[in-house]
Design a protein that fits this description.
The chain is α+β, with helices and mostly antiparallel strands. The protein has 9 helices and 10 strands. α1 runs parallel beside α2.
């Protein structure tokens, strides 16, 4: 049996800096990954099969349209015979769907990593990244699952050499937000680029100062669609020790960035008390290794 985590992606900053002729948006984003995840479990089987379980499995298909199934099929097409026999894959869906956490992309990336681990020969990372890009703009960054600056539509991923030890609190009101609709409602498609990232970046306070000059350009639009997002940003920002409160991706998940595990877990406890029907998690961020 093989296990592969699919960590939650968090956009600490997300700037929409242009729009291409094909109508895809050019982005600049600082992404990190939290140690809270969906999980893939694979065992040998007569043929490839996907089963989806977990608290957020409802409504997700397990057939050929599921992005995990498509990732497995794409891997086998690109490297025929590299993985012998079929696989029974169980996807435990622990992360909310349409939540701005890259859930589906992270699941696809985990499937590619799982397949590469079983391949009869080593698969070059560059080739795996190229395949990941065919599955979705967020899949390459999720394939690496480490702090990175990401540009283009998401396909240009530059991992960071250093990143401070930080913790996050994630809270989602369990209201799905459709990414395409958020982008459709954007008023401005040409916004200022990200400021230069400190190098080396080693301290939470240093990260906080950098983030003060950044934005999530999708946040105002998403708040217009789901006002609860704005309320959560306000409440998160008042938690003791919160360095930054902001929406991740296209929402509706709001994150709080903390320099200490104790402060993050206290904030999560407080939010669970005031919002018992919301999804709340506290976790460390994954590092650069």
């Amino acid at each position: 049996m093989l296990l592969e985590p699919a960590p939650a992606k968090i956009n600490l900053a997300l700037h929409v800096v242009g729009r291409r002729p094909d109508r895809y948006h050019e982005l600049e984003t600082l992404v990190v990954f939290a140690d809270v995840c969906d999980e893939l479990e694979a065992t040998p089987g007569p043929a490839d099969r996907l089963i989806v379980e977990g608290p957020f499995a409802t409504g997700l298909g397990s057939g050929e349209t599921n992005i995990v199934s498509r990732a497995v099929e794409a891997f086998r097409s690109r490297w025929p015979g590299a993985v012998e026999g079929g696989l029974d894959i169980l996807l435990r869906k622990n992360l909310p769907v349409a939540a701005g956490l890259g859930g589906g992309s992270a699941d696809a990336a985990a499937a590619l990593r799982l397949m590469a681990r079983q391949a009869s020969a080593e698969i070059p990372t560059a080739d795996l990244l190229a395949l990941a890009a065919t599955l979705g703009a967020d899949v390459p960054m999720c394939l690496l699952s480490r702090p990175a600056m990401v540009t283009g539509i998401g396909e240009r991923v530059s991992p960071l050499a250093s990143f401070p030890a930080c913790h996050v609190v994630l809270v989602n009101p369990l209201i799905p937000v459709v990414t395409a609709e958020v982008f459709r409602r954007l008023d401005s498609h040409q916004n200022p680029v990200l400021p230069r990232l400190p190098d080396p970046l080693t301290r939470p306070a240093q990260l906080g100062l950098f983030l003060e000059g950044t934005r999530n350009d999708l946040e105002p639009v998403a708040i217009g669609m789901v006002p609860e997002i704005g309320a959560l940003v306000g409440r998160m920002s008042t938690r003791t020790g919160c360095i930054l409160a902001r929406m991740s991706g296209s929402g509706a998940t709001v994150f709080g960035l903390f320099g200490s595990s104790a402060l993050a877990h206290q904030a999560a406890h407080d939010l669970r008390s005031t919002h018992p029907d919301y999804w709340v998690a506290a976790a460390p961020l994954l590092g650069t290794e």
